[in-house]
Amino acid sequence: MWRPEPALFADRADAGRRLGERLRGLNLDRPVVYALPRGGVAVAAEVAAALGHAPLDLVLVRKLGAPGQPELALGAVVNGAEAETVLNADVVALTGADEAYIARARAQALAEIERRRRAYLAGRSRPDPRGRAAVVVDDGLATGATARAALHALRRRGPSRLVLAVPVAPPETVAALRGEADEIVCLEENAIPFGIGGCYDDFHQLDDAEVVRLLDAAAGRAPP
């Protein structure tokens, strides 16, 4: 992809190391790091390592794409104790997505969430964030729909401190999410004219095998 300037980050691991360095200064209490799969896992693995090899877990959340524009987020669905859907009302109105379309998109998203649960989390011991700091990590934000859904789900689980940590996001998205987390750490507030991928030299699509490898590596070094 052509860009007028160098990318902000070499790859997700580079972004995660830099994000982890920033987060170390927050003095988080027994942090648990929650990645938004799939791309966020590569960032979060480095964050977890930087935070004393904190436990790494996932928030299983999926974007709901707009009709004919799958990259534009109508909202997102997260499946924790119960499924929760968060919608971007302005995008819904702009695209004319009706209730039937949203219901179909939600059903498809929940099916993929269940597939990922089986692929990534089967047989794994998962930490309880209650009374601990929870850090939600993605590789970048556009509308923030998936991050908002993830924060809603985690807030219900009772963390003592809820932090959203991302390498890059537009300033208006960061501002819109201020009330959803106790703190937001964003390395670069950027209008992302070339999308999140344009902020990285290497923004390859993670596959299931890479996600599992990163989770296995973190599990082997994480304290209880």
UniProtKB/TrEMBL annotation:
<keyword id="KW-0808">Transferase</keyword>
<keyword id="KW-0328">Glycosyltransferase</keyword>
<dbReference type="GO" id="GO:0016757">
    <property type="term" value="F:glycosyltransferase activity"/>
</dbReference>
<dbReference type="InterPro" id="IPR029057">
    <property type="entry name" value="PRTase-like"/>
</dbReference>
<feature type="domain" description="Phosphoribosyltransferase">
    <location>
        <begin position="21"/>
        <end position="192"/>
    </location>
</feature>
<dbReference type="InterPro" id="IPR000836">
    <property type="entry name" value="PRTase_dom"/>
</dbReference>
<dbReference type="Pfam" id="PF00156">
    <property type="entry name" value="Pribosyltran"/>
</dbReference>
<protein>
    <submittedName>
        <fullName>Phosphoribosyltransferase</fullName>
    </submittedName>
</protein>
